[in-house]
Fold this sequence. Notes:
Helix content is about 45%, strand content about 10%. It has 8 helices and 5 strands.
Amino acid sequence: MSPSFHELQLHPALVKVAGELGYERPTRIQTLAIPPLIAGRDVIGKSKTGSGKTAAFVLPMLQGLDLERRELQALVLCPTRELAAQVRGEVRTLGRGLPGLVTAELVGGQPARGQRESLARGVHVAVGTPGRIMDLLGTGSMEPSTLRILVLDEADRMLDMGFIPDIERIFQLTPFTRQTLF
Ligand code: AMP
């Protein structure tokens, strides 16, 4: 039998929410990915949609935040706006037991102004698409120096869609010491 969420060393507030959501046990990708991610290692994970892969990176990412510091600590890049909205929703749901958690969705197709204002007020986690994130970095609206966790969700699809130059640039702008997840 697979270990419990508690046995994976997840924070009790995160274990509690997983229980409330009816997640009885970690899925295979969660069992394999959560321990090295909590340990701060870079991880490349591959698994199908529906396998619980979003929670596999969101849970340890939430655990790694310092909520006392209202600055950008984790950035999730997604190939599409729809996926970004979904991932941000999961960050909020899984993070509902963490007081003060602030998240932002940074995608194209909507005015950048509100997004710039949220960043200026301070967010812990941003989820978005590469084009809009490049714009926000380019105008200085987004401060990359405090980032500790960078996630490329569906990285293969982003590469197929021609986002390589944007992603390379984002890699260059974020601290070398960051934890990186594919
Ligand atoms: P994903 O692979 O990220 O698209 O997740 C598919 C679905 O599985 C989502 O609706 C999650 O809410 C759900 N899920 C994630 N982890 C678990 C788990 N350990 N047990 C049951 N359901 C889960």
